[in-house]
C-alpha cells in the first residue's frame, strides 16, 4: 500500500521511510488513538482489554480459509487501527478496527483502535474452528477473535466493456485531475515541492519504471514487462511502496472481465513468485491480490461508478476516500488505474 501514515491496502500500519523496502516482523511501531471499548466486546477479566471479540465483517475467502485452518501463527505487526497476523500456512492477514473497511485478507472488528490492548508483535496466535486467539502478556488474558457472526464480504469486479470509444481515456483523465486536485504531492505524482535529493531521485526512478512498464505492456513485450515490474517493485518508502501501489492499480484494471491487458497479471505473478523479497510483506500481499482482481472496497466501488459512466461530481467523494488510504498510497494506486485505463483504450482501438 511514501512516508505514508496509516496504510490500508489490504493491511495497514504506520509506515517507515525507506527507498527499496524490505519487511521485518518486529519493526512496527504502535500509534496512538482512541482505545475505547465498543458495545460488541465483552470484558469479564479486564475493564480495558476484552478476552473475546466478534468480527463484524470479513473477506469471504479468508473466512472459508480460516474454517479449515488449525495450528500456530504469530503477530506480524501492531498499529493503531490494525493488527497483522501470520497464519500457520504463512498467509498475512489483518484484524482491522471498525473504520478500516472491507478488503482482501481482512477481518473487520468492532474496536475503535488496537492501542492499549496488550497485543505485541512476535506473540503466538492459535488458529482453529474459524477463530483466532492471540496470546498476550500478563495481566491480559488471551484475546479470542470469533468469526461465526461475520458478514461475508466479496470482492466483486465490474466490467468496463460497455464504455463507449473514448470513455476509458476520459475516465483516466478524470482520475488524474481529481488526484492532482485532492491528493497530496509525492509518489507517482512526482516529488513534492522542496523535496530533498533522495525523494527527487526516487520520484525520477518511479517515473522511469512506469514508462518502461507502460511501453512494454502496450507492445505486448513480456520481457520488457518483467523489467518494468522489477523497476517498480518495492520502490519508495512505506509499508506499501509507491511502486507497489502503481502495480496494484494497473493489475486490478488488467484483472477486470474482458480486459485487453489480461497478459499482464500472469507476468506480474511470475515476477512476484521469484522476487517477492524485493518488497514488504504488505506490499507483496496487496499486489498479489490485485492480480486476482481483489482490492479494497473503496477501489472496487470507484471502478463500479466509472463503469456506470457517472458524472464527475459523483466521483469526487469516492476518489477522496481512495486518496485517504495512506499518505500517497491512494493516489499512487489511482495512477496505476489511470495508466491501465489509457492502455485499455489504446489496445481496444476503434470500435
Structural features:
351 residues, alpha+beta, 2 domains, 8-stranded mixed barrel, two-stranded antiparallel ribbon, 10 helices, globular, disordered N terminus, AllH-like, DUF2877 domain-containing protein
Structure description:
It is a single chain. With 351 residues, the protein is of the alpha+beta class. The chain folds into two domains: 31-153, no CATH class; 167-348, no CATH class. Helices cover 39% and strands 15% of the residues. It has helices at residues 60-67, 167-182, 197-219, 222-232, 242-254, 264-275, 281-291, 297-307, 312-323, 329-348; strands at 6-8, 12-14, 41-42, 52-59, 71-78, 82-86, 92-96, 106-109, 124-128, 131-134, 143-146, 151-153. The protein has an eight-stranded mixed barrel. Strand 10 (131-134) and strand 11 (143-146) form a beta hairpin. The longest helix is centred in the middle third of the chain and has 23 residues, at 197-219. The two termini are 36 Å apart.
Amino acid at each position: 500500500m511514501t512516508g505514508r501514515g496509516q496504510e490500508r491496502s489490504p493491511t495497514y500500519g504506520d509506515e517507515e521511510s525507506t527507498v527499496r523496502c524490505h519487511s521485518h516482523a518486529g519493526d512496527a511501531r504502535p500509534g496512538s488513538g482512541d482505545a475505547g471499548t465498543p458495545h460488541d466486546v465483552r470484558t469479564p477479566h479486564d475493564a480495558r482489554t476484552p478476552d473475546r471479540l466478534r468480527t463484524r465483517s470479513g473477506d469471504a475467502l479468508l473466512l472459508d480459509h480460516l474454517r479449515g485452518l488449525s495450528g500456530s501463527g504469530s503477530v506480524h505487526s501492531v498499529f493503531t487501527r490494525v493488527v497483522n497476523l501470520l497464519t500457520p500456512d504463512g498467509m498475512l492477514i489483518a484484524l482491522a478496527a471498525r473504520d478500516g473497511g472491507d478488503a482482501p485478507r481482512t477481518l473487520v472488528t468492532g474496536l475503535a483502535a488496537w492501542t492499549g490492548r496488550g497485543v505485541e508483535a512476535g506473540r503466538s496466535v492459535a488458529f482453529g474452528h474459524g477463530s483466532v486467539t492471540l496470546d498476550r502478556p500478563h495481566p491480559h488474558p488471551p484475546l479470542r477473535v470469533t468469526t461465526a457472526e461475520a458478514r461475508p464480504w466479496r470482492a466483486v469486479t465490474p466490467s468496463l466493456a460497455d464504455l463507449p470509444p473514448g470513455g476509458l481515456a476520459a475516465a483516466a483523465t478524470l482520475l488524474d485531475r481529481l488526484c492532482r486536485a485532492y491528493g497530496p504531492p509525492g509518489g507517482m505524482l512526482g516529488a513534492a515541492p522542496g523535496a530533498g535529493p533522495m525523494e527527487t531521485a526516487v520520484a525520477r526512478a518511479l517515473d522511469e519504471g512506469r514508462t518502461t512498464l507502460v511501453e512494454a505492456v502496450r507492445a505486448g513485450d513480456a520481457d520488457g514487462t518483467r523489467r518494468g515490474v522489477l523497476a517498480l517493485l518495492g520502490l519508495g518508502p512505506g509499508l506499501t511502496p509507491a511502486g507497489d501501489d502503481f502495480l496494484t492499480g494497473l493489475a486490478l484494471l488488467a484483472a477486470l472481465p474482458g480486459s485487453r491487458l489480461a497478459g499482464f497479471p500472469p507476468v506480474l505473478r511470475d515476477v512476484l513468485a521469484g522476487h517477492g523479497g524485493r518488497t514488504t510483506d504488505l506490499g507483496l500481499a496487496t499486489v498479489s491480490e490485485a492480480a486476482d482482481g481483489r482490492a479494497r472496497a473503496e477501489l472496487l466501488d470507484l471502478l463500479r461508478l466509472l463503469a456506470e459512466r457517472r458524472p464527475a461530481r459523483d466521483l469526487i467523494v469516492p476518489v477522496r476516500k481512495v486518496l485517504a488510504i495512506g499518505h500517497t498510497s491512494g493516489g499512487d494506486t489511482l495512477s496505476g488505474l489511470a495508466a491501465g485505463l489509457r492502455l485499455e483504450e489504446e489496445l481496444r482501438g476503434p470500435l
